[in-house]
């Protein structure tokens, strides 16, 4: 995910920018750059890959005395991770860095190109600097040109812009992407897209609100709100604890990552939804030529998301799909035929068992695809094709946002294949795409839900075990709910298909058996409800998660009412994640680093 830093002052500008970018490294990036304006002259450097490459390029660049500088770590969305696409982007006499997405960039770019403006990159960001310079030609002053530019942009952004002729000033705008400014004891100014780069430099910071824009210079802070009214900065104390800053005020990385799901799903969808079809620029349609079957392979949480894909692919894309646990697949001499597309799913791209199955499939001559969160990981390098999930760095060992983005990608992929294979009509595909656009809303954590789960969690700290039950695609979600609870609470939990309970596990039912039942309104509701009734009749303690209240349940976690089961799926996913989190917190466990577990399992 992209990161922004900026600095106005007399200290070593280059070092401050590079140090700041280092603090943002954990967010993930694939290229970086800086631009420094001193005595009305620009110096700019960019490098692909890790920050050491940028450090190497700038090693002879010395910054002393007063300067203004901006820096950026880029996580590619529009255009590949190349030096030309890295920020800062330049015009004739200005540089810009930007986080977010300019949704109307294609239209703006077309207009600017028609006027003879030459673009160097494939990014949406570059339009900002050219539009600004165009506006500057007719505006009264630089601020007017900047505010005109901002008013022409649609989408989400945090922007810093520096321009010749204003060599003590950084222009800024914030809408939908975070940005703050801090001041140090010498009145130097520091910008960043999150607080960590400012820790150790600034004790007080001003967090910009959506719609804020303006400029900050050596001795002025000028902020306008979204209505164009001047406003005073509101400085607050900045924590000096880096780790807690990275957690953005949340108690645990896992909690932060649960709350981030809405934003990362927006990233997953970015540029991939048109009204009529799913656009995967990274895939060549020939990948599916001659393919009659899909085989998915993964471990743990990624296996659960793969299991959701079997329902989606067969239901929508009408293609035979199966899934296997990678460690099993490896040693059972599987039959692999060339009309099968082999798909591995991995957050890290390094899991040893999954990687090995990918090698086996390649050796057998199968076409391969990886769904992965880490660019340049072993699996991404090895597979024929790759779809990145764009969840950003996941620090909590118990996976949350990675799972959410994997399921999102599978849902999109099922529509992509449905279109290729003509298995759904255009109207249905358009309907599904419209539903996808609602997912960021359905995974937004509401205070009411979190508070309710916090309170409820105290009733679930003992007992002789949990069953998480669901039907259809809610069965893999039940498996995932049980895995989350096991991982961080150390309580025994099993995920089970609701309809299977009566074939054995119901023997365990008593008041000390806790059943978490997923009851989607729009998928097999009555059938799943009967299964819960069977358990309730045997005195099991039941907590239902549903949009509809059910009188036989002891506890109830309500979700919103939606028009489709996939939206119910995503909100229930959040409820399950929060339930595990709060039970673990009450038990006093290490939520982010549970015992015996590692984030990336690179051994067999
Ligand atoms: C559970 C979890 C693990 C991983 C598994 C595979 O919360 O994170 O079950 O899903 O170790 O890891 P990746 O997805 O990196 O291949």
Descriptive account of the structure:
34% of the residues lie in helices and 24% in strands. With 604 residues, it is α/β, with parallel strands linked by helices. A hairpin with a 3-residue loop joins strand 5 (89-90) and strand 6. The longest helix has 22 residues, at 565-586. The model has no long low-confidence stretch (mean pLDDT 93). Bound molecules: fructose -6-phosphate.
What composes the largest sheet?
8 strands, antiparallel
How many strands? Answer: 25
Amino-to-carboxy terminus distance: 30 Å
* Helix fraction by DSSP (H/I, runs of at least 4): 25-40%
Total DSSP helices? 19
CA-atom Rg in angstroms? 26 Å
How many domain modules?
3
What hetero molecules are in the model?
fructose -6-phosphate
Secondary-structure class:
alpha/beta
CATH topology of the largest domain, by name, is Glutamine Phosphoribosylpyrophosphate, subunit 1, domain 1
- Regions with pLDDT < 50 over 5+ consecutive residues? none
Mean pLDDT: 93
What would you say the CATH architecture of the largest domain is? 4-Layer Sandwich
